[in-house]
Sequence to fold (243 residues):
Amino acid sequence: MKIRLALAAVAASAALLGGSIGAPVAQAAPANNGAAAKAALDSIQPQPNDAAGVIDGIAAANALLNQLGITPFTPTIGACTDFSFPLALGGAVAGPYTPGIGDLTYDLPLLPEIDANAVKKGEILYGFVPVGAFDDSGNKKGMSVAWFNVNTFQGSLSEPMDGLGETVVKAVAKRLNAAGVPAANAVAETLLLPLTNVLPSNGARGGLVDTGSGTVLSAIYGTVKKGDATCYFFPSLGIATAK
Fold:
């Protein structure tokens, strides 16, 4: 009961935003399974992107999330133990979708469909980008997502986040491995070069959450290391619609 009351508080705060996030429209590509699927995946040519450095403002964070197909939430601010106050921006995208690629669903006649998307139907990928230089050489834990599905009354206060690039690559590799695609990890890393090339070298976080279909009220919050200091970020609020 306490959890649902807390989630309701998150929902009430997020409801003030009055917006929604839909999955970007992407075209499906032809596919196969096993070795043939790998050949089809290898034929995709990653689009070139300039590697992003340190994000230097909310406008840059907003542009990065939009470039990845992640709809931004409200900006937020962090309080650091070195007495700095960096800004940050969270966001979300519903599946089926893969940041930097589009729709990685493959379907050929007489063969099982392969959904290799990082974000599958009924899931939401959350992204978080702080402004400034942060230390990602060690543990990337600390950020979390609180969410509440207003259609199913399900939710959580502490879905963990990790590095944004790592989260997406691992998710795609998991889908490819389940479909029997050889060298799934290597294929996923190659496919996602557009994503990993554009991400900043530090600070970006991602979390993949099975929310089920419905309207999902969300808050991204937690900590990110900044050298020897720790930054505590207040919630970035938003609403996403999972198919």
Remarks:
- Helices lie at 2-15, 34-42, 58-67, 164-178, 184-191, 193-198.
- The chain has a mean pLDDT of 78.
- The two ends are 27 Å apart (CA to CA).
- The first strand starts at residue 71 and ends at 80.
